[in-house]
User: What shape does this take?
Amino acid sequence: MKFSSIAIHAGQEPDSATGAVTVPIYQTSTYAQEGLGKHKGFEYARTQNPTRLAVERNLAEIEGGRAGYAFASGMAAIGAIATLLKSGDHVVVSENTYGGTFRLFDKVLTRYQLCFTYVDTARLDDVERAITSRTRMLFVETPTNPVMRLTDLRAAADLAHRHDVRLVVDNTFASPYIQRPIEFGADIVAHSTTKYLNGHSDSVGGIVIATRDDDIEWLKFVQNAEGAILGPFDSWLVLRGTKTLALRMQQHSANGLALAQFLSAHPKVKQVFYPGLPSHPQYELATRQMRGFGGMLAFELGSLEAARRLLNAVRLHALAESLGGVETLISHPATMTHASVPAETRARIGITDGLVRISVGIEQVEDLIDDLDQALAAI
Ligand SMILES: Cc1ncc(COP(=O)(O)O)c(C=O)c1O
Assistant: This one.
């Protein structure tokens, strides 16, 4: 089956008890057993839940993996991936990784004798130099937030495997409609389902999709052992979200490109960061590894004052953190999502005071352009 059919059908049969076409929300903590040692495969809801199982199967197929495990948040999913490591192990990480991931690695996991080296994973020579005999994982985000720098996934997978290192890709920013890292050789894919997979800004969750037998067995064990599971209602919301993922991503991409083109032509905008613009330094890579370019973009206004004026003047764009919902959100990375990143690191990765990020929604694009136009006039 092709992408949209998989998204709508994978993991979902009409309910065996009633024929319900939509997987029910199995809001139960336990299951009656027929006799000692005799049950229908469900004993206790931390361990197994049919609604969660459906979304896990759905997302595993959507990403082209072999098994998926759903967690209470994207961070819980990344935390579970980290349990594949043992004390003394080393991880190479995209230097501009999501701040919450950096916080988990830097402030929590270093207490357990795990080491992390942050490099620009767009530069594979730097990645290779950072790999040591203790490296077990290469953890990549592509595109990066918010300056949309890309990592060549096929080359990264080849490099990682040459050194017997797992490639883990946080695919939250692109979504599997735009990019499927396992096709390029990734071993594990993670998502904050809070974003495009759920798509409606009304649930928090995470998923890990794995390909290797040993990882699948361990992640299943850890999901139950640590217990940070996705609840049945949130599982159901994500299942509903993925049914329209293809349509939504097509519209996010169309609107993203239109806004990027509008902003590029505007005299008050100094630079636009969007992989679908031929001016993007990795445009050719984007066309090779992405299907459409998604709804995330950033642009440079030159100063904090200009950014403040624009953000105060927008009406349809909501000033908010997060991304990937149907509604357009606008934010100021330096003081919002990336405020905890040290100033010199922000400067190195291009997060200036004049940088503004948009998570472009699926509204009528003319309305978004009109809103930006009037807000830019206020600068
Ligand atoms: C790329 C990326 N990964 C992981 C996360 C963490 O996800 P959650 O907020 O669902 O814990 C986020 C959240 O913004 C994110 O943007």
